Amino acid sequence: MDLRGLLLDYAGVLDEPGMASVARAVRGVGVRTAVVSNADQLADPALPEAFDAVVLSGVVGFAKPDAEIYRLAARRLGLEPAECVFVDDLRRNVDGAVDAGMVGIHHSDLESTVMELQALFDLELGA
């Protein structure tokens, strides 16, 4: 199955300088994007406009690493979990996404994550 969705954690991933630009670049080539966060709201009120979906645990009632939050995010993108890549800085959350059927990336730094995204989506992003 082709990868057509990118789901990103906010704290520890999207708040790292450069990651929001990477997400915009991936979305710009037609990949559906979502923020998946264990929060009640996002610190940046403009952030939802840059993504196709936002799934917040405080709103939906379940949190990472519960598989249902990843499945819900995929549904909101109109995709199957197997079509999605999830990026988080916490291994347990990545493992939860993998258990839900997604490809997982354990984020440690911008350069490594960009390299993995480029390989998975067959893109040239530049970091």
TrEMBL record:
One of its GO terms (molecular function) is hydrolase activity. InterPro entries: ACAD10-like, HAD-like_sf, HAD-SF_hydro_IA, HAD_sf. It holds the Pfam family Hydrolase. The keyword tRNA-binding does not apply. Keywords: Hydrolase. It comes from the Bacteria. This is HAD family hydrolase. It comes from Saccharopolyspora aridisoli.
